[in-house]
Amino acid sequence: MFKKLFLRALNENQILILENINGSHRSLNAFLEELSKEFNKPMSTLKLNARILKELGLIEYGGKENPKPVELTKPGKLVLKILGVGE
Predict the structure, then answer these.
(1) Residue 71: its pLDDT value, please?
(2) How confident is the model at residue 69 (pLDDT cuts 50, 70, 90)?
(3) Chain segment 9-27, per-residue pLDDT in tens
């Protein structure tokens, strides 16, 4: 039941972002640039979806004033687990 809900609530780009966060990217831009090249997605689309995921509390990242790597939050990890793509 929850899997269907999340698949309807999150779009393809949001799921792509969640699935590819591995803690190794120092900045949001570096992470999204890598995704953009690998999956041929526009940066602007990925930035918008990353911002939405942050507002939903599924990911965290810092800004210019507070550099912080891109990370999944506990709720973000739970969503991935429910979708069957995370631990």
Answers:
(1) 94
(2) confident
(3) 899 999 999 999 988 877 8
**Is the separation of the CB atoms in 21 and 46 below 8 Å?**
no
Q: Tokens 């640039």 label which residue?
A: 33
SS (H, E, C) the chain: CHHHHHHHHCCHHHHHHHHHCCCCCCCHHHHHHHHHHHHCCCHHHHHHHHHHHHHCCCEECCCCCCCCCCEECHHHHHHHHHHCCCC
Whether 54 has a pLDDT exceeding 80, the answer reads yes
Return the closest-CA partner of residue 81 out of 55, 47, 58: 58
Q: What's the CATH class of domain 2-82?
A: mainly alpha
Nearest to 9 by CA among 48, 53, 71, 45: 53
